[in-house]
Amino acid sequence: MSLNARSTFLLFCVLSIFTLPTLMAQDSSSYYTVSHPDEFEIDWAGFYNIMDARTAEVRKTFPHHLDLAYGTDPKQKLDLYLPQGDVTSAPVFLFLHGGGFREGDRAHYGAVAEPFVKQGIITAVASYRLTDDGFHYPDQPTDAKNAVKWLYENVGQYGGDAESLYVGGHSAGAILSADIGVDRSWMTEAGIPTAALKGILPISGPYDIRERGRPGEVYAYAPTPELREQASPILHIVDPAPTAVVAVGSTEAYVASSQELADQLTAAGVNVRFLVLDGEDHKDTALSLANPDSELFKSALEMIRK
After folding, report:
1. Where are the beta strands (DSSP E) in the chain?
2. Mean pLDDT over residues 280-295, rounded?
């Protein structure tokens, strides 16, 4: 190889190292919300751009492990974000993204991890299989359960406390976090003690989906009336996690559903904090979770600290 050729090759390698994260970033341009902006009041392209930029900054600052597989499908992976320095027996928070079960990816949501890891909390951000790829209920809650199982079995090697797990999510992810958190009977079959799941943090979701669904979203998630009944967490509060923060923006359509979930969890003996975030819309509540000064994050932190 000539000197010039070798120099060119080395330059290519160096550039590849710095550009690879950008090249591998999840492309949101094909998402329905982004490619059909006239159908939505919220600027979802702008939302994903903000989250992508903040996620890139988080990855520059905090230790992390990307694309950890909890299954064989490309979507059955999670990203793990760690506090700086030595980590021992840290509580673990799993975040499940939104997107109507048809779009979204863990790659956008590393920003959510920042305030948690700053407080010594290991944060996992998981993807799950989507309806646009032909997957429907119960595939998505099965993925969420398997992500929890992976964390229980593996997070100890990263300094996490497998007996101190918390699960939250936004929108579709809120439904999933509620689904696996209001009835922990699945954990016994998975070989996980139910006491390991300490709390849930469902944000901005409808929890009774029997009579709700926009084309391509909830009805695709649970295509039949029978499946929609099974997929409604509010109808199956059997053995819930002992603590919960249920949050919703005051301008969203999900205030009544969130209030009902909080009320029924309270009736079941759960220590619940119900938050109506003043003036916030559907994107704002996701951004609030990534904001260390927000009421939402402070409530989540209080739940985990207790």
Report:
1. 64-69, 77-81, 90-96, 122-126, 160-170, 197-203, 243-249, 271-277
2. 98
Answer yes or no: pTM beyond 0.85: yes
Contact (CB, 8 A) for 148 and 166? no
Is residue 92 over pLDDT 70? yes
The pLDDT tens digits for 35-47 are 999 999 999 999 9
Amino acid code (one letter) for 226: E
Answer yes or no: are the C-beta atoms of 266 and 240 closer than 8 Å. no
Q: What is the pLDDT of residues 116-134, one digit of tens each?
A: 999 999 999 999 999 999 9
Going by their DSSP bridges, the two strands 90-96 and 160-170 should be labelled as parallel
Q: With contact defined as beta carbons under 8 Å apart, do 233 and 207 qualify?
A: yes
In the sheet that 77-81 helps form, which strands lie side by side, from edge to edge? 64-69, 77-81, 122-126, 90-96, 160-170, 197-203, 243-249, 271-277
| CATH number for the segment(s) 3-305 | 3.40.50.1820
End-to-end CA distance of the chain: 63
Length of the chain: 306
**Domain regions of the chain by residue span:** 3-305
Q: What is d(CA 176, CA 227) in angstroms, rounded to the nearest whole number?
A: 14
Q: What are phi and psi of 87, to 5 degrees?
A: -125, 125
